[in-house]
Amino acid sequence: MRGVGLLACAALVASLTACGGSSGTAGPSPTDTGLSVGAPSGPPPSPGGGADAIAGSVTNNVGTLPTIVVPKSASPTKLLTKEIVAGKGPVAGEGSTVTAHFIGLHWTTGKPFYSSWDKAGSAPDTFSLSGVILGFAKGVSGMRAGGRREIVVPPTLAYGSKGSGQVGPNETLLFVVDLIKVF
C-alpha cells in the first residue's frame, strides 16, 4: 500500500498516509481513519435532491489536477457520488486495491487537505479500499478505471466527531478521484 495522506504524515506503506496537500502541510488520508472500516457493499448511492445534491462543478480532464467549485450550500447529510467521466476499464469492488489520483477538500471552506498531484513527483497513490475511510471506499466502489468521480462524504462515514489531522470534528469532505488501475 502506498501513501494517501489525508490525516497524518506516516509511512507510505500499510497506513496509506503521506505528506502533501496544496497548502504544503500534511493532510489526513482516507486510509488513516481512526475508525473501524468495513468492506464497501454494492454500488455507490446516487445523488439525491435538495441539500443532498452535488451542485458544484468539476473539470472533466482526467489525469490532471481538477478545478473544483464547491457549492455554497449546507453540507450534504449522506454519501453522494457524481460520475464526471465514465471509465471503461475494470470496476473497483469490495476489497479491491486501486491506483488513483485524488484530491480531498473541506466542504465548508473548499480548501484542500490532500492532493496526490501535489506530492513530490506527482505520483498517484496505491491502496486497498478495505483500508480507507468507509465513505471514500463506498464512493470509489463501482467506479471503472479511466474515470473521474466526485464523492461527498458526510462525517458519519469519514472521521466523525473526533476529526483527524487537518480534518476537524464533524466535517463533510469532498473528493475528486481519477481511478487509474484496479488490481
Describe the protein.
With 183 residues, the chain is mainly β. The protein has one helix at residues 134-140, and strands at 57-58, 68-69, 80-85, 97-106, 112-115, 125-128, 148-153, 173-182. Strands 3, 4, 5, 6, 7 and 8 form a six-stranded antiparallel sheet that branches. Strand 4 and strand 5 (112-115) form a beta hairpin. The longest helix has 7 residues, at 134-140. It starts with 56 loop residues before the first strand and ends with a strand. Residues 1-26 and 32-51 have low confidence and may be disordered.
Gross morphology = globular
H and E order: EEEEEEHEE
Helix content: under 10%
Structural class: mainly beta
End-to-end CA span:
12 Å
- Average residue-wise pLDDT: 78
Determine Rg (CA atoms, Å): 14 Å
Q: Can you count the helices?
A: 1
Biggest pleated-sheet summary = 6 strands, antiparallel
Number of strands: 8
The percent range for strand residues is 15-25%
Low-confidence stretches: 1-26, 32-51
Describe how the helices and strands are arranged:
Layout: E1 57-58, E2 68-69, E3 80-85, E4 97-106, E5 112-115, E6 125-128, H1 134-140, E7 148-153, E8 173-182
Antiparallel strand pairs: 1-2, 3-7, 4-5, 4-6, 4-8, 7-8
Name some characteristics of this structure.
single chain, 183 residues, mainly beta, six-stranded antiparallel β-sheet, two-stranded antiparallel sheet, 8 strands, 4% helix, globular, disordered N terminus
Concise synopsis of the structure shown:
The chain has 183 residues and is mostly beta strands.
